[in-house]
Structure formats: structure tokens, C-alpha cells
Amino acid sequence: MSASTLFPLLKRLVKRLGVRHAGRTAVAAVVTQLVVTVLNLPQGYWAVITAVIVMQANIGGSIRAAWARLLGTGVGAVMGIVAVHVGGSSWPALGMAVFATLMVCTAVPFLRESSRVGGITAVIVLLAGHGDVSALTLGLDRFFEIAVGIITALAVSLSFFPSRARKAVSFGLAKIFQDEAAFFSLVLEGLVRDVYNDRQAFALKDRIVRTLARCRDLRREANLEGRGGEAAAAQLLLLFRAEHLFEHILAMDHIASEWHGQGLQSQLTGELAGLRQSVGAVLSGLAAHLRGDGALPDLAELDTSVAGAREKLSAMRRERAPAAYGLSEVMHFFSFMHGMLACAAETGEIVGRLRTVERE
């Protein structure tokens, strides 16, 4: 096996096994344990546990997890201390502390992700104390241990093979556009051949929806990393446009899934094939560009295909060709064609806007 073949294979294997993230997390755990040993923390394992929890696949995710962990610990410690002073370590005090912690975390939007950590901290403050250790001391110790784990994890995340959420967003968008190209082609084939592949269509729709959701989360994490600028604006634009394009294809998919026409689509066989080829090529080229594998695709072929389809539709209307078919088929077919042309227009707009942003 040649080196040119082996290297991409090893790269895919490393990515699939999560070697990079596993290695960074292991380093964070070891470094935290060393810090805990130097500081001689009595229950330093909480710092190590925190470091493992905080370490995410990218820097923005680590910052987001760090805030959730730190804020949840702070709220839980405060509620636990108050509950101990009011009712000791009794079960009513325990219930009050957990209830108050979750209520506060739920009421404050940026604390919602911290609710579980806060509840656990409140329980520890109430139940893990000893007669010679006050609740205040226990709460402060827990907060300090968590802070040590967070600081160490963030330091490792920033210095040891750092990975940024913004790059992950680009790869996610590339995956979306590639899947949308496949979905567009599948839907068009389903109408032209009158054979709709339910299983494959469902798989593509599900994957696109999940990737869109993941990209939205990654964008929030990328905002925490800072240094957004034009790159962040371009990604927001692409995410917005990708959702619009998906909606257009879904409208086409709805028609194709129920299509049982008498052959009206055969009037535009060449034009439909041209649109399928050109839209798919532009979306695939856009995906490759976002992965860093090439320049933005040229739109000349897409423009030619759109012009040809529009001219053919106008000719069909002039010649009253649709009159030979049922009203329902005609309405569904022209709705489908409207969706196809909207997809082509959206695709061209995406590339054009991105080219403008990259030139600025």
C-alpha cells in the first residue's frame, strides 16, 4: 500500500476512533492529577472528574461545559450551605436544597445546563460532610476543586492539539450541502422514473436535520471562542441558506413521494437531467470548497440549465402541451418545477454570496 493511500486511511481511522479527543482528555486528567498532588487537595479526584467532563471536542465546547460546571457548582454549594444552616443534614433540608437549586437553574436561562451539576453539589455539601468540617468549608473546597479541574482542562484544550468549533462548522456545512445534493438528485429521479425510494429519502432527511442541529450548537460554541468576524458571518449565512434549500427540496420530495403521473415529466427529460447535473455539481463543489479541497464552483452550467428549463416550460405553455394531462398532474408537476428552479436559484445565490464575502 502506497503512502498516498495509507495516510488518508490512517487519518480517517484516527478521526473515527476519536484518538485526538481521547488523547487530549487523557492529558487533561493526568495534568489535573499532578496539580491536585502539588496543591495537596483532600478530595482532588473531583478536580480530575471535572477535567474529564469539561474536555470537549473543541475549545468552544470546553468553554461552554466549563461555565455550566462552574455555575452549577456555585449555585449548588450556596443552596447546600443555606440548607445545612437552616435544617442540618436532615431529609427536609436535603429536599429543600435540591428543589431550590433546580428551581434557580431552570429559572435563569444560562444556568439551565447547570441544573444536574448544581443538584449533585447540593447533595454532596449536605451528605458528605463530617462533624469537624462545616458546610461552608465543604462547599468552598468543592468549588475550588471544580475550579482547578476547569482551569486545567481549558489550559490543555487551548495548548494541546487545539480544535476550534468554527472549523467543525465548516465541515458540518460541507456535509449538509453534499447530502442536499444527494437528496435533490434522489427526489428528481423519483419523479422522472416514478419510483420513489422511501428508505433512502428518510435516511437523507434524518441526516440533514441532525447535521443542521449540530451545526447550530457548534455555532454557539464558536461564538465563545471569539475571533469570529467575516468567517462567522459567512457561516451564519451558509447555515441560513442551507435550511432554505432544504425546505425547497422537502417541498419537491412531498410531490415526488405521491407522484403517479401519466408522463408529463417526459416532456422535459433533457432539461430535468441538466438541472439535476448542474445543481448537484455546484452543491458538491461548494461542499468541497468548505472542506478546503478546491475553489468555489463556476455557475455557468447552472445558469444555462435554468435558462433551458424556463424556455422549455414557456414553450409547453404556448403549445398547450399540459392540456393533454389531468389537472392534478399538471398542478403537481408545475409545483415540482417551481421547487426545482427555486433550488437552482438558492444554490446560485449561496455561491454568489459566499464569493462576495470571501472577496471582502
Summarize the structure in words.
The protein is mainly α. It has two domains: 18-159, no CATH class; 165-359, Methane Monooxygenase Hydroxylase, Chain G, domain 1 (Up-down Bundle). The chain is 80% helix and 0% strand. It is built from 13 helices and no strands. The protein has helices at 3-17, 19-39, 45-54, 59-87, 91-107, 115-127, 135-159, 165-192, 198-225, 229-257, 269-290, 300-318, 327-359. Helix 4 runs antiparallel to helix 5 (91-107), helix 4 packs parallel to helix 6 and helix 11 runs parallel beside helix 13 (327-359).
Please provide a brief summary of the model:
Helices cover 80% and strands 0% of the residues. By secondary structure, the protein is an all-alpha fold.
Element layout with pairings:
Blueprint: H1 3-17, H2 19-39, H3 45-54, H4 59-87, H5 91-107, H6 115-127, H7 135-159, H8 165-192, H9 198-225, H10 229-257, H11 269-290, H12 300-318, H13 327-359
Helix pairs in contact: 2-3, 2-7, 3-7, 4-5, 4-6, 4-7, 4-9, 5-6, 8-9, 8-10, 8-11, 9-10, 10-13, 11-12, 11-13, 12-13
